[in-house]
Amino acid sequence: MGIVNVTPDSFSDGGRFFDRQRAVEHALALVEQGADILDIGGESTRPGSDPVPASAEIDRVVPVIEDVVRWAATPISIDTTKAAVARAALDAGATLVNDVSALRFDPEMAGTVAAAGVPLVLMHMRGTPKTMQQGQIVYGDLLGEIAGFLAGRIQQARQAGIAAERIIVDPGIGFGKTAEHNLSIIHRLGELAALGRPVLLGVSRKAFIGQVLDVPVEQRVFGTAAAVAAGVLAGAHIIRVHDVAPMRQVALLAQAIANESLPAAPGRASGERP
């Protein structure tokens, strides 16, 4: 899953793709790099960020989605917590909703997703983006609490009419967690298999990588690669990243190691011996 932030203030690339044309060009470049899904968002969820009005979010993302679908068949995910934004994005051509609030912030979101019959990502988060890193961050049973939260949100989605097979879960790396929590989640990611749903993992360029390696955000590609490899080996099904081309290679090799087998022929380099 390739990230397209159409925002002025995202933690990693805020402002770089805020212009419509640049955002579309970036999205198409990620497709060329091998993105299987494009995740387009118009509101930053970095720690301490404030929400933006739905109208502003729509103005940011809908023109980009409309342009991208003219040029690429790659599925588009709308990264939003607002039902109005989700509806507008789906009407424009998006085919998946990525809700970091797990249906908690907008009572109309569950019905919107159910009516559209599209896949939904449910993510664990402590508090809101504004408050999630404030105060003492303590869990009595980290993976148990995350799994319990996600199980409850799956039940809520099911009760709203969203088919179980359309639900994806995300443990929410960096969303109300310390660096140590993030490391534990990646290491123990396989415990979420009990939920019976595909797992999305978003580790790209995040602060815990900087804390471990003591590097700024623009120098976290190698740390991201290590986290992606560990995540795939632990059972992640979807990897949400900024740097699609190198992380696709990392994920493919990690998956081959996990499966103890070579990938399908299209992923093999031409001219190499079997």
Task: Please give a handful of descriptors for the protein shown.
274 residues, alpha/beta, TIM Barrel, six-stranded parallel β-sheet, two-stranded parallel ribbon, 9 helices, globular, disordered C terminus
Largest sheet: 6 strands, parallel
Helix content: 40-55%
Residue share in β-strands: 5-15%
> Do you know the CATH topology?
TIM Barrel
Can you write the helix and strand succession as a string? EHEHEHEHEHEHEHHEH
Q: How would you state the average pLDDT, rounded?
A: 93
At the first level of CATH, what is the class?
A: Alpha Beta
Q: Write the CATH architecture name.
A: Alpha-Beta Barrel
Write a brief caption for the model.
This protein is an alpha/beta fold.
Q: How would you portray this structure in words?
A:
The protein has one domain: Dihydropteroate synthase-like (TIM Barrel, Alpha-Beta Barrel), CATH 3.20.20.20. By secondary structure, it is an alpha/beta fold. 42% of the residues lie in helices and 11% in strands. Helix 6 packs across helix 7 (207-213).
What is the fold's blueprint, element by element?
Blueprint: E1 2-5, H1 20-33, E2 38-41, H2 54-71, E3 76-79, H3 83-92, E4 96-99, H4 109-116, E5 120-123, H5 142-159, E6 167-170, H6 179-187, E7 200-202, H7 207-213, H8 221-234, E8 238-240, H9 244-259
